[in-house]
Every structure is written in C-alpha cells, then in structure tokens.
Specification:
The chain has 6 domains: 24-112, Nucleic acid-binding proteins (OB fold (Dihydrolipoamide Acetyltransferase, E2P)), CATH 2.40.50.140; 113-181, OB fold (Dihydrolipoamide Acetyltransferase, E2P) (Beta Barrel); 196-269, Beta Barrel (OB fold (Dihydrolipoamide Acetyltransferase, E2P)), CATH 2.40.50.140; 277-356, Beta Barrel (OB fold (Dihydrolipoamide Acetyltransferase, E2P)); 362-443, Nucleic acid-binding proteins (OB fold (Dihydrolipoamide Acetyltransferase, E2P)); 452-558, OB fold (Dihydrolipoamide Acetyltransferase, E2P). By secondary structure, the protein is of the alpha+beta class. A hairpin with a 6-residue loop joins β2 (44-48) and β3. The strands form 6 sheets. The protein has a 5-stranded mixed β-barrel. A 5-stranded antiparallel beta sheet has the order 8-7-6-9-10. It has a 5-stranded mixed beta barrel with strand order 11-12-13-15-14. Helices cover 17% and strands 36% of the residues. The chain starts with 5 loop residues before the first helix and ends in a 5-residue tail after the last helix. It has helices at 6-22, 64-69, 94-112, 178-195, 277-280, 361-367, 451-455, 499-502, 545-563, and strands at residues 32-40, 44-48, 55-58, 75-82, 90-93, 115-124, 127-131, 135-139, 158-167, 172-176, 201-209, 213-217, 222-226, 247-256, 261-265, 286-295, 298-304, 307-312, 334-343, 348-352, 373-381, 385-389, 395-399, 421-430, 435-439, 461-469, 473-477, 483-487, 508-517, 522-526. It is elongated. The longest helix has 19 residues, at 94-112. The model is unreliable at 531-568 (pLDDT under 50).
C-alpha cells in the first residue's frame, strides 16, 4: 500500500489552508455580499454566504410578496451585521442590504440626473414625506409650478421626482417635482413657440381666471382669452363660462414674438351675429326673448345667442311711471317686444314692451267724456294733489284746488288717504301730455252760486272761530268751512295789544258780515261795530268801502298763495 509523500502532504495542507482562508474573503461586518438560501425555518431563513458557518435572517424582514416566492436555492443580497454573536451565529440582514442597494441606486440617479419614482406618504412641516425606496423630503416650494392649497390631497399619490440633494451618511435626501415640471414645460414651450401662428386653432387649459379674462396654458406658454373675446353675447364674469382646469379650443388672434404675448379668442370661431341685423330685426317687427339683465334704466333681452336688445324703462308701460324695471320684469322672464330701432354699427337694438298692447290714452277720451263720474283708489298723495287710479291703469289727478268749494285745504292728506276709494268727476283729458284731471268738489253744487249768498246776508251777525291771525287781519271760519276775513281796519284800535295778543286760533268770535262776493268767493267780516255782547256800537264811525275791498283783496291773495301748486 503506497503512502502520501511529504510533498503531496504539503500540497494538501496548502490547499486546505487556502480554502479556509477563502471562507474569510469579503466577510466583513458592515458589508454586502451574496448568499444562497439553504433552509427556511419557522421564524428565520438560513443562508450560506461561504463562511465557516451559515447566516440567519429573520422572516420578518421579507415583505409578504417576497415571502411567498422565497424558496431553498434562492440567491439574496445580504448585509453582514455580526460574524459571531454570543452563540457563534453569523447574523445577516436583508433589510439593510436592500436599503444600501437603494442608496447606491439613488446616488447613481443623482449623479446621472435621472428621475426616480416615489409615493407621497405624509404631510410634514415645510413640505411632504415621500417614499422613494427610502424616506425623502419634498419641500413645499418644490411640489408644483404653482402653490398647492390642498397638500393633504397629495397623500397617497405617486409622482416622478428629481434628487437635488443626497447625503447617505446622514440619511438625508431632498427631492423636487417642480424641476421635472419646469423641464417638461420648457420643452413644450419650445415646441409650441416653433409652431404657433396667428389664425391657428389650438387646445388650451384654463390656468387662471381674472375679472377681465382667463389665462390658458397652450403648452408651456400662456395666452390671454379676454372677456370681450369669449362670446358675441354678454358675459358677466369669465367664471360664468370657465373654471380652472377646463379644456378649450381657441383661436390665436395675435402673437407678438418679441414680448411673447398671445391674444386668444373663442367668439371669432363663429360668424358675427350682428351682421345684417337690421334686415333680420326690422323696425316695428314683433320679437320674443328672455330677460338676461336688469339695470336702473331698463332690461336687456336676449333675442338670440350674442344678440341682446334693451327695453328702456320708459318703454315698459303706457300708463304707469315705472321707477325700476324689476317692478315689471325679472331675470329669466320670457317677454314679447317690438323693435323700435336696430343699430348694426353700434350693436344696439331698442325694444318696447308697451307697444305690444293698445295705448289706453287713445281710447280714454271717448270712454270718459268730461263730466263723467268715476270711482277709483287713491294711489299716491303729493303736496299739490292726490292721484286716483282708474281700472284701465291710468291715473288721474285731483288737484288741491278741486277738493273743496269752501274749505281752505293746506295739504291733500287732510282730505284723502292712500288706498282710500273715492268718487270724482272727469274735468279734462290731455292725450298729448297724457294727463287726466279729476275733481272732487264738483261732485256737489257750488255753494257760492246758490247757498252762501242766501245764508250770509250783509249786516247779519254770526259766530265763527278764529282760524288764522295775520298782519293784515284775522281769518274766521264760519259754518260749512266757509272762511271770512276781518281786516285790521274792521277790528278797531287798541295800541296796547297786538293782533296775536287780542285774538287766538280757536277762539269763538261774533262777527258782522260786511260784504259777500260770490264771483271772487270772498266774505268780509267786521268786529269794529260790535260790542262784547254782539250789539252794534252806535258811536262807531262809518266803514270805508275801500277798506272793505282791500281786506277782501288780501283774503284772495292769501288763499291763492296757500293753494299754489306744481299743476296737474
């Protein structure tokens, strides 16, 4: 039997030593190496990395999707945590190996300027936390091209990011989404600018809305769609037609390459509806439309998309003074009107509503001749009279001078109240000025022509009540609101007292009738000849007729001044 020579034995020992040393190759704590799964136990995985002993990895380090595919023979990248623990086991970590691998890939991506994908996992102070394999910080200013109001709404969303700062030793990574968006925008901008031309139809996205228009993103460059170029019709506010994020096809109206300004339009995509407007809406033609807007001076009516007409407040009713259009129509009402005038150049159409019904003033004169007795409700009261409404919608005026034959009416409210039903007589109708004059006192006979001259005889002594004290005399109210004047010349002298001191409003006073003038509707009174018991003073000097006429004249002037008005 042959034996191994010393040389062979030396070689075998050298080979064994080499193999033994090989087990320590790259087996350094804190490094990554490759291993092979040789067993899967209840709570751990046994991995052979070519070391003198197998390594152990907890099953908790395997995600559910990887755990299901785990099998003996699989090769893994593992991190050497400890070559020997207290029990002599080699401790390995798959989690740390994965993280180190991710860090290496992220550092390469940062160096090469490549984008990485990440998922927003939480909102934190100053920005968002993003999972890109490891946790990275996304500053608020780097989220989008414009400030994002709802940051919480981004949680759970996945985007591409660019690493702008990385420090493996400190475990710090700062990323940006805005950088990628700016790069994309710049590329789109260059492409858009190279192809943009006036008259071109282009798709845009509403980016911002102002009071005067909407800004659209045309592909990296913004254009302005002015409110006047949105529609041929009325646009109250751009937000009535558009919202941020809306897509719209627009026409490039003007493009100034030097400044980069772009003017856009939508209404120019269709023909101007005001062309040949006069032939389509001839004067005196009847039209139907919808009230779209109200102002203090009238109502705007849409006749067709882009074409509106104005019904002026003065053209809404024949009979009523319309103070505001809202008293006649409301926004959304469908109305009939008549075309009064169409101005294509001025883009205006004047409409009338009252022209669609007969003018009651054309028939009122034949229906209500002078002297006709009518009944109506008091609609309003002014300083000079009371307006009474007739069934036809026409208002007539009872002037303050036509309210009483005998009573001195200082204000119409002494005779009438708003809403009161009254009777009156038609005095006069002026169709040209659209005025109707009514009389209230004319319901009865004029007492100055029949009753008063026979009831108030010259020389008779009657009792009246002082109604007013003036510089030139004292007014006294007799029966039936008949008023007479005691002129100062008919009062007598008493230098120690003024008229206001001698007479008081409401005072009962015996007076003598000096003169009754039915034509002038005046009664002159006297207390000069009266003793306190009403008997004539035999020693009184005779009255001068000139003084009496003067007193009556002052009475007429006073009544005329009190009854002056603005007219019917």
């Amino acid at each position: 039997m042959s034996t191994m020579s010393d040389t062979d034995e030396a070689l075998d020992r050298g080979a064994l030593e080499a193999l033994y040393k090989e087990t320590f190759k790259n087996i350094e704590e804190g490094t990554i190496t490759e291993g092979r799964v040789i067993a899967i136990q209840k709570d751990k995985v046994v991995v052979d990395i070519g070391y003198k002993s197998e390594g152990l990895i907890s099953l908790n380090q395997f995600p559910p999707d990887e755990l299901g595919a785990l099998a003996v023979g699989n090769h893994l990248q593992v991190y050497i945590e400890q070559r020997e623990d207290a029990e002599g086991n080699l401790l390995l970590s798959k989690e740390k190996a994965d993280k180190m691998k991710v860090w290496e890939e992220l550092e390469v991506a940062h160096q090469e300027g490549r984008a990485v994908e990440g998922k927003v996992i939480a909102r934190i102070k100053g920005g968002m936390m993003v999972d890109i394999g490891v946790k990275a910080f996304l500053p608020g200013s780097q989220i989008d091209l414009t400030p994002v109001r709802d940051l919480d709404g981004l949680v759970g969303a996945t985007f591409e990011f660019k690493i702008i700062k990385i420090n493996h030793r400190r475990g710090n990574i700062v990323i940006s989404r805005r950088v990628l968006l700016e790069e994309t925008r710049d590329k789109r901008r260059q492409h858009t600018l190279s192809t943009l031309a006036e008259g071109q139809l282009i798709q845009g996205t509403v980016k911002n809305i102002t009071d005067y228009g909407a800004f659209l993103d045309l592909g990296g460059i913004d254009g302005l769609l002015h409110i006047t170029d949105m529609s041929w019709g009325r646009v109250g506010h751009p937000s009535d037609l558009f919202s941020v994020g809306d897509r719209a096809e627009v026409l490039v109206l003007k493009y100034v390459r030097e400044s980069g300004r772009i003017s856009l339009g939508i209404k120019q995509k269709t023909a101007d509806p005001w062309m040949n407007i006069a032939s389509r809406y001839p004067e005196a033609s009847r039209v139907h439309g919808k009230v779209v807007s109200l102002t203090d001076y009238g109502a705007f009516v849409e006749l067709e998309p882009g074409v509106e007409g104005l019904v002026h407040v003065s053209e809404m009713s024949w009979t009523h003074e319309v103070r505001h259009p809202s008293r006649v129509v409301s926004v959304g009402d469908a109305i009939e009107a008549q075309v009064l005038h169409a101005d294509q150049q001025g883009r205006k159409i004047s409409l009338g509503m009252k022209q669609t019904v007969p003018n009651p003033w054309d028939i009122i004169q034949s229906r209500y001749p002078a002297g006709t007795r009518i009944e109506g409700k008091v609609k309003s009261i002014t300083d000079f009279g009371a307006f009474v409404g007739l069934d036809e919608g026409i208002d007539g005026l009872i002037h303050i001078s036509d309210m009483s034959w005998t009573r001195h009416v200082k204000h119409p409210s002494e005779m009438f109240k708003k809403g009161q039903r009254v009777s009156a007589v038609i005095l006069c109708i002026d169709t040209d000025k659209e005025r109707l004059s009514l009389g209230y006192k004319q319901l009865t006979a004029d007492p100055w022509e029949s009753d008063i001259p026979s009831r108030y005889l010259v020389g008779a002594v009657v009792t009246g009540v002082v109604s007013k004290v003036a510089e030139f005399g004292v007014f006294v109210r007799l029966d039936d609101d008949v008023e007479g004047l005691i002129h100062v010349s008919e009062i007598g002298t008493d230098g120690s007292k003024t008229l206001e001191e001698r007479f008081a409003v409401g005072q009962s006073l015996p007076v003598r009738i000096v003169k009754v003038d039915s034509d002038e509707r005046k009664i002159a009174l006297s207390v000069k000849d009266e003793t306190p018991d009403g008997r004539q003073d035999p020693d009184a000097p005779p009255r001068a007729q000139g003084d009496i006429d003067q007193s009556l004249g002052r009475l007429v002037q006073d009544k005329a001044a009190s009854s002056s008005s603005d007219g019917a």
